[in-house]
Amino acid sequence: MYLQNVISTSLKRLSLCLLAFLTLSGTSAMAGDTIKVGVLHSLSGTMAISETTLKDTVLMMIDAQNAKGGLLGKKLEAVVVDPASNWPLFAEKARELIEQKKVDVVFGCWTSVSRKSVLPVFEELNGLLFYPVQYEGEESSKNVFYTGAAPNQQAIPAVDYLMNDIGVKRWVLAGTDYVYPRTTNKILESYLKIKGVADEDIMINYTPFGHSDWQSIVSDIKKFGSTGVKTAVVSTINGDANVPFYKELGNQGLSAEDIPVVAFSVGEEELSGLDTKPLVGHLAAWNYFMSVDTPENAAFIKEWKAFIKDDDRVTNDPMEATYIGFKMWVKAVEKVGTTEVDKVEPAMLGMRTPNLTGGIAVMNKNHHLSKPVLIGEIQEDGQFETVWETDGVVWGDAWTDFLPGSKDLAANWGPELRCGNFNRKTGKCSGTVY
Amino acid sequence: MVNGKSQLLLNRAWLSVFLMLIGCLLTIAQAQSGTNTVEAVVSQDAFTELIHQLRDAKLRKKPALVKQLGELQDTRVEAVLQALLDGRLYYTKDDRRAVVFKENSEKGYRITDVVSGTLIGEIGKRQAKKIGVNNTLRRILRSKLAELKLDSDASEERLKAVKALSQKMDARLGHLLRDRLPGEEDDDVRAVMSLAIAILDVRGQDTGLRLDAIEILATDLSSNIRNTLNDLLRTNADGSFAETDKAVLEAATDALKKIDRQVWLYGLVETLFFGLSLGSVLALSAIGLAITFGVMGVINMAHGELMMVGAYTTYVIQQLMPNYQDSFILVAIPAAFLVSALLGICIERGVIRFLYGRPLETLLATFGISLILQQTVRSIFSPLNRSVSTPSWMSGSLEINSVLSLTLNRLYIIAFALIVFGLLLMVLKKTRLGLQVRAVSQNRSMAKAMGIRSERVDALTFGLGSGIAGVAGVALSQLTNVGPNLGQSYIVDSFMVVVFGGVGNLWGTLISGMSLGVANKILEPFAGAVLAKILILVAIILFIQIRPRGLFPQKGRAAED
Questions:
Q1: Does B142 sit within 8 Å of A48, measured CB to CB?
Q2: Residues 288-347 of B with CB under 8 A from A
Q3: pTM of the full predicted structure?
Q4: Contacts of B277 in chain A (CB under 8 A)
Q5: Looking at this predicted complex, what is its ipTM?
Q6: Consecutive 10-residue runs of chain A (434 residues): their mean pLDDT?
Q7: Which one of A84, A113, A168, B279 is CB 3.0 to 4.6 Å from A232, fit for a cystine?
Q8: Are strands A283-286 and A261-263 parallel, antiparallel or unpaired?
């Protein structure tokens, strides 16, 4: 009786083992057929408004690549997860993508806090993340490529334009109360002071996420700007709060000719949910506008509209950043013939690919791109008209030169240094602190 | 070879003589028909030439062209500059010759030739391209247009023109205004003109003239005038005044003091208005909750989403009535009420009625409903925000003077909140439903014993509260984003208002909403938006410690359960 039991249990175990082995080998065989691309963008919650577009962009790029015959003879397969605008969930989902789904690369994140949340996961598991949004800098990780703008590719040129071309002497730095606006405004404040702007000519204002009652702030801005000296607002106001802000500007009769607002978080996508009449003439600084007239851009817009099956959908800067990142990754994988992170990452350095505005984007050794900077005025149709652009491309600086703690730091992932935060003064790489 | 060349030259000479002859004949003919025509021909050429340059020029070159255009004595200039400013000046892509005015039409654009003034016809949107303008150009256009409109027949236009010009006074503009002042008939325009001239006079040398000018300036509160006076009081590096004329200095100091006092007073009025308008939004979003939470005792976490549904109803109505951009909102108000009320009744019948007397479960269940509603909206309308346009009669502001202007949409919302409040009060106090609602909320079993169908009353009460949330959503669609997260940002505030005002008391809700709004706006300039909100919350917590039942506690038997 006892023996029988033992035999039957061991038989059961054996069969289970066999079954497990079979399924395992089956999945690994399947994994060999495709290259998996993880998409880590919120599809629900507050950030869904911006991030779903980027998910669709990645899917479109994958479709296009597969139509060309895939990559390394294999098809690309998208693995989409929804971190639901929940920052800790971003880290969990990133782990799931790399450990369980075995993806070869991840395109994802929007807010800085979500990026900070997944960063330790990507470094621990040696994953590869392409981050496509303009951000505050002060970071360079071996496992992340930053294809959005660093502050010196967006904020600083915008301020230069206002100062030199428009003659602005008084500044309002208005932002939402979180890490990106606070860091950017710190950088800008120190930059303005270096340029000789007095303390009383800078007004800094922070508002909570989703702030909707802008009456007194706009009225303060109006008073601040009525001293007869040219005043401008540099806005790092994020997401939803922009709509009531611009509405209030319009209602209180502040036109772009009196006090222009230059925004770093308002693009075509945000404007499409807005009545743009009162906004005409206000500015935004980006590396890409949908209105840029180049054959590459026209083709991209056509492809996008066909993919999303909606003729009214717009394209925007983070989409271009996703596009550039994807193209570069494909090229790097083709170059080294594998998707292994340790081989792809060095191959990415110095990678060149045409951007959509008619130039060539270059991936630098600090994992940031060189891109042109454009400043556009909002038009009545919700598009931007470029009023100023840099002569060539601007090199993305991971560590700004205008903050005391960061001006000595440099990032260089080339073979000579392999460090994301090299201190030029002490000659040391501090390694773990980003 | 040589012969051929000279032959050619000879031919050319003949040709030019011939052309000159024709030209002379034409000129004579024109001179006979009217003496001005020759000039017109010349200026037409310059006009056409400039218009074509404007079409091809880069943004940086355009200001100079606009200035040249402004100096032409041509009646078409004003219309062209106005069209350029309004973004209605286009050129056709295929034959880059025509520069046109554009109007939207069904097929695309209806275009009119700028030079000849003739209607060309309709073309598709992709066939025409706009002539771009930027802020610098817009500013120049506005001042050029203002100069052109100085001689307009309408006194309104002249007033606007002088006001615009007075922002940047210089000697040339001074002459323009001085020439026109004696002939001006409209009193308002005269006053603004003399103000503008006073800005110049005060910078002059003649002490008497300057003192007179200061006296005129002291009557106005505009920022450019304050700046002019401030300039007089500018100090040197050592702290002494740059101005040496004692009398002028004194007069300017007095004038500024007088102006500052008034500005301060109007500032107070403005803060009060801001506070009341924020308060009316708070009250509006809380009134519905005051019914469901206050009267029925249901903690409805989906209240914010009912507002969101109201806002989306507004959006849908707007989409359904594309030709009634000014009146769709009047249809949207009852529609939003009905949709939200029906949804509310469904929620009450489907979920809440099983949970009466179990506040924790109600809270969780309604929170679940709120998430379901949010995601449903996301699936139907996409997660992107939808734009609800503001009717033209609601945009802009009511300008009382140059420091105080009340934004119209806020004014309407204050009035709207009061009307909704009044109507609700009427319903509760004067109708049969109201009587039943009050009866059930005070003593359910007694009401039942009196023959009131308490379940039906519950459903209707919840529907009423939800419907009012929907109406609040219509108001919010005019102020903020219409998106899936609309409700979340208001739910906490609404509960705060109801608790502070005293649960179960409508007047309390109104007064607490208004006072929280005003307190918030008084704090905001000093503390900043983030801190102001925190301070208000802390104040409410402290207040609730002292008076747990809020501002207006319920009295009598109802208060005791």
A1: no
A2: none
A3: 0.79
A4: 215
A5: 0.76
A6: 52 49 43 85 81 94 94 94 91 96 95 92 95 93 94 93 92 91 93 94 89 89 89 88 85 87 90 79 94 92 93 93 96 94 94 92 94 92 88 90 87 87 84 51
A7: A168
A8: parallel
